[in-house]
TrEMBL record:
The gene is mazG. It is an enzyme of class 3 (hydrolase). InterPro entries: MazG-like_dom, NTP-PPase_MazG-like_C, NTP-PPase_MazG-like_N, NTP_PyrPHydrolase_MazG. SUPFAM superfamilies: all-alpha NTP pyrophosphatases. Residues 242-269 are annotated as: Disordered. This is Nucleoside triphosphate pyrophosphohydrolase. Its EC number is 3.6.1.9. Residues 242-251 have a biased composition (Basic and acidic residues). Gene3D superfamilies: MazG-like (1.10.287.1080). Signal peptide: none annotated. It comes from Thalassococcus lentus. Residues 37-110, 176-232 form the NTP pyrophosphohydrolase MazG-like domain. It comes from the Bacteria.
Amino acid sequence: MTNDDLIHDPKGGMPRLLEIMRRLRDPETGCPWDIEQDFSTIAPYTIEEAYEVADAIERSAWDELKGELGDLLFQSVFHAQMASEKGLFTFDEVADGMSDKMVARHPHVFGDETRDKSAEQQTADWEAIKAAERAAKARGGVLDDVALGLPALMRAVKLQKRAARVGFDWPSTDEVIDKIVEEAQELREADDPAHQREEFGDLLFVMANLARHLKIDPEEALRAANAKFTRRFESIERALAEQGRTPKDSNLEEMDALWDAAKAQEKAG
């Protein structure tokens, strides 16, 4: 089969996708936009596609999930092609590296360790293996390899988890909540924009810590809150539309009452 035959083969699978990516990046015959890209320009698209996968799952949009997973896979292929062009690594090496990692991190599946473990023990073993991998990379500090490019809220939780492993952590949620009260008061007392920004960041950071102590994913919790706000505000819009009005024709008192009605209806339902 020629490369052109592969590109047009509807059952070409992974080799087809890799060849398409190679052709898109061909400096003489490829797509000008694709040729211009580098790791830094593609990275935002990679993050966006990952969120679109999460969104499809959250909405149980299973008919969309296949396409979103394909978009995310294409991002990995794109980065691997650019790396291959620079002589850094190939897509096969990416796949082999991940396979090696999964085999090494699951000795209870692929090795001689017992599978008779609790979920908590498996998590502890996983973290111990990851810690050994980090030590082998000769990282200097406890926080050194927590990725800078993570969403800030997610990175806050990862930083706190890493610090907790060496004992830098509050023993219970009570101390975290006390710290939230303290940070809220400091925000109230902040008297200039720079100070307010700093104190607001501190408050968010402690809120992320509380989520970690409660075993809540703060990103997931905030997405749920966003969805709830959207539902209830749309309910306000519908109620006003029935009267031939929009939120601009209303006021806070009326909209707040409609909000409470939507809230009560959700709870009753």
